[in-house]
Design a protein that fits this description.
elongated; mainly alpha; 130 residues; 2 domains
């Protein structure tokens, strides 16, 4: 009899713990769900996607123009074009599911870095990459 009472006490204690943990788990799930809704709502704005695509296209045009004007060497232009192409591929991969804030930040950082590299290559006058 005593063994049965101990087993029942343990079973009720473990059930109480599970029931006590359930409301906390439900609350955190609701907060995460709310966060996902906010992220999805932010993804709906296509103006951000168009702006990033425009920036990438402008960079490709500026690289082409600098190569035609011979302000950068063909070797420098090749490296810059390769980086612009990889940036376009990254944008296309992110765009499939819609851009979130982190992806936008990553793309903007890379666009700015490529723009700065183009400026530096135009001003170095050495005809070499880097």
């Amino acid at each position: 009899m005593r063994k049965v009472m101990i087993a029942l006490a343990l079973a009720s204690t473990s059930a109480g713990v599970t029931l006590a943990a359930s409301p906390a788990a439900a609350q955190s799930y609701g907060q995460q769900n709310r966060g996902q809704q906010q992220i999805r709502a932010w993804r709906i704005q296509p103006a951000v996607q168009r702006q990033i695509q425009t920036d990438i296209n402008q960079l490709e045009t500026r690289i082409q123009r600098a190569a035609q004007r011979r302000t950068i060497s063909p070797r420098e232009a090749t490296g810059l074009r390769r980086q612009a192409r990889s940036l376009q591929q990254l944008y296309n991969r992110f765009r499939r599911n819609g851009l979130d804030r982190n992806e936008v930040r990553q793309l903007e950082t890379q666009v700015n870095a490529l723009h700065q590299r183009l400026r530096l290559e135009r001003r170095d006058w050495d005809g070499r990459r880097g």
